[in-house]
C-alpha cells in the first residue's frame, strides 16, 4: 500500500488543536480590544482644554483609528486562518504542505499553527 498518506497522529493533531484553540481565544480578545478602540470615541473629556491643538489631535485620532482598523482586519484574517486550520485537523489533513504534500515540520506548526506550506515550499515562492 504505497498510497498511504503521511499525516500527523491523532495525538499530535489533538496537541495542535489545543495550541490553535488557545491562539483563537487570545486573538479574539485582542480583536475586541482593537474594535473597541476605534468604535468608541473614547474621549477623556479634554475637548475644551487646549483648542489650539484640537485639529492636530483630531488628525492623530483619525490615524490611530485607521491603524487600529487595519490591525483588526489582519486579526480577523488570522482568526479565520486558525479556524481553517481546525477544519484541516478534523479532516486529518492538517500539517501537510499544499505544494509538496510532505509533512510541515512540527516546530514550524507550533510557531505558525495556520501554516499550509513547508519551509521548502515557502522558499520557492
Automatic annotation (TrEMBL):
Protein name as catalogued: TraR/DksA family transcriptional regulator
Organism per entry: Tenacibaculum lutimaris
UniProt superkingdom: Bacteria
Gene Ontology MF annotations: zinc ion binding
Tagged with keyword Metal-binding: yes
Domain Zinc finger DksA/TraR C4-type: 93-124
Gene3D superfamilies given in the database record: DksA, coiled-coil domain
Pfam families to which the protein is assigned, alphabetical: zf-dskA_traR
